[in-house]
From TrEMBL:
This is CDP-Glycerol:Poly(Glycerophosphate) glycerophosphotransferase. It comes from the Bacteria. InterPro entries: TagF_C. Gene3D superfamilies: 3.40.50.12580.
Length: 417
């Protein structure tokens, strides 16, 4: 009898302690690929550890313009009772409910007051969110291989309480350049990298596939301060023609989610011209036009044999997946000079400045059996090649140092650091 009494007491004590220490967490997302990367995995890990997790779904707005509706289908990956829709589920999104609860942690996927000037500002500005939590957290979007000092927000340390970064290199940027306290920058890894690792061995080999990822910003004002702008206008005709001439190759064209809106707004292209370009790609049977809203980045990278891009943090996923990379340089030759990982990254990629060099790089990659790093200039014998391979693997480990980022962050939150 005493045994059952002790067991019953222990049960109630355990239940009471769990309930008392239950962490309340809020995530704010748009879609799975826009400010929603890794949230599903984090949500599951935190729920496993008895956290009370709420996911707020809001549209992506710019002033009165709706850039992207919130993703109702994405919300189906969470338990319905944990989802809230402060603006409703469909346009015109005229009313925004207040966040009534307080939370131990609120995760903002974009900490730069991107809600400013929209109806979301009254609820989701950093100032208002700070009233609802003592821990306003930011999971830094990918690595800072292309970090630009012109983007440094010296006030960010006053707005955000804690940032979770992918690597020591990125932490160094936040501590040394943006003046965060060391204790407020946590190296947690990046969930997207784990997703790539988990899928790497599941790809079924098909015919050669080339992935092109043009960046979003098209202007070149003060470009000596920037690490590349989008090369889309320079190369889209080349890729259309190259795909036509090489029907035995599959192509994936994955423009940045903001590329075409930016091109139209800044008057580089008219809406009709953008529609014509997109249609030109989609008409080709060997081209898949990939859009963020319905195609995860990791899957496009895993499917490819060669990745071609300009300045984008998405190249980190390509490194994790061991894909050879052709970088379309802007010719300023200041790419990757802003941080430790970026400086080393230059050693492992092909640089191209015009179409002829792109074709030459593709041919070299084929000759080298799709090696994920340049070996023609660095490996004249087996010993050098082996040493270079070791350095490359060490680089990948520094880029992707945490086995399970979602588990790491969930543990950090639950333990109340």
């Amino acid at each position: 009898m005493n045994f059952f009494l002790v067991a019953l007491i222990n049960f109630f004590l355990t239940y009471f302690i769990v309930q008392t220490n239950e962490k309340k967490v809020l995530f704010i997302v748009h879609t799975e690929t826009i400010n929603g990367k890794g949230v599903v995995e984090l949500y599951k890990k935190m729920k496993e550890k008895n956290a009370k997790v709420t996911v707020a779904f809001v549209p992506l707005l710019s002033g009165n313009e709706i850039l992207y509706d919130l993703d109702v289908n994405f919300s189906k990956k969470f338990q319905i009772e944990d989802c809230i829709f402060p603006c409703g589920k469909t346009p015109p999104y005229k009313i925004v409910d207040k966040i009534k609860e307080n939370f131990d942690y609120i995760f903002v996927q974009n900490p730069y007051n991107s809600f400013k000037g929209t109806i979301l500002e009254s609820t989701f500005s950093l100032e208002n969110l700070k009233k609802k939590t003592n821990k306003l957290a930011y999971i830094v979007y990918g690595p800072h291989l292309f970090h630009q000092t012109t983007c440094n927000d010296m006030q960010l340390k006053e707005k955000i309480d804690i940032v979770f970064v992918d690597s020591v290199s990125t932490k160094k940027v936040f501590v040394e350049q943006m003046r965060f306290k060391d204790i407020n920058v946590v190296v947690s890894g990046y969930q997207s990298y784990k997703n790539v690792r988990d899928k790497m061995n599941k790809r079924q080999k098909k015919r050669e596939t080339i992935l092109w990822m043009p960046r979003w910003t098209l202007h070149f004002n003060n470009r000596h301060q920037h690490e590349s702008g989008s090369t889309f206008l320079s190369y889209y005709l080349f890729f259309i023609n190259y795909a036509k001439e090489n029907k035995h190759i599959n192509f994936i064209i994955r423009p940045h989610v903001l590329l075409f809106k930016n091109a139209i707004n800044q008057k580089f292209l008219k809406k009709e011209e953008v529609e014509y370009i997109i249609l030109s790609f989609k008409k080709l049977n060997n081209v898949r036009f990939s859009e963020h809203i319905n195609s995860p980045l990791e899957e496009d990278i895993i499917e490819s044999d060669i990745v071609i891009a300009d300045g984008t943090s998405a190249l980190a996923e390509a490194v994790v997946a061991k894909k050879p990379i052709i970088y379309l340089s802007n010719g300023i030759n200041k790419e990757f000079e802003s941080n430790d990982l970026g400086i080393e990254f230059k050693n492992y990629i092909y640089f191209a400045h015009h179409p002829v060099e792109i074709i030459q790089c593709i041919e070299n990659i084929r000759k080298n059996s799709y090696s994920p790093f340049v070996i023609s200039h660095n490996s004249y014998n087996f010993v050098k090649k082996f040493k270079f391979l070791i350095n490359y693997e060490r680089f990948r480990k520094r880029l992707d140092p945490v086995e399970n980022p979602a588990e790491f962050i969930a543990d950090y939150v639950i333990k109340g650091n």
